[in-house]
Amino acid sequence: MLEMKPVRNPGLILQLFEKEKIPFSEGCGAFGIAQGETLLGYCLFRMGPAVKMLAIRCEDRFLLDGLLRAALNHSSLSGAAEADFSAISGPMRESLDQLGYFKKEPLPIEWFFSACKPCKGMI
């Protein structure tokens, strides 16, 4: 069974930040997708009025979309109104662009869930 949820293990969070060579600071966290004990993808972020996505890793395009939707929902419930993807570049940015994540920057989370619907017509 797939689970998408905040990573609660402090050691794993620090390990993921080290792997991505991103300094860990206050407000930083991780959201992951796992099957059993196997981590299939994750996003690293820093919370604030806008959640700043620092790194995203997920090989499967559909899992990637679900992971980001879950992470954005978590961020919204934690008080973030927008998502800033400016730190994401290269192939991951291209994948997110194909999924429709950059129709507005920064991304208004409420608008994303109510009007954007980037996965419509993908299946």
Task: Compile the SSE list and pairings.
Layout: E1 2-6, H1 10-19, E2 28-35, E3 38-46, E4 50-58, H2 61-77, E5 82-84, H3 90-98, E6 107-108, H4 109-116
Parallel strand pairs: 4-5
Antiparallel strand pairs: 1-2, 2-3, 3-4, 5-6
Task: Please tell me the CATH architecture by its name.
Answer: 3-Layer(aba) Sandwich
Fraction of helical residues: 25-40%
Measure the end-to-end span: 21 Å
CATH 4th-level superfamily:
Gcn5-related N-acetyltransferase (GNAT)
Radius of gyration, in Å, reads 14 Å
What shape does the CA trace take?
A: globular
Class inferred from helices and paired strands: alpha+beta
Count of alpha/pi helices? 4
Quote the CATH topology: Aminopeptidase
- Using DSSP, what is the number of strands? 6
The total tally of domains equals 1
Strand content: 25-35%
Order of helices and strands: EHEEEHEHEH
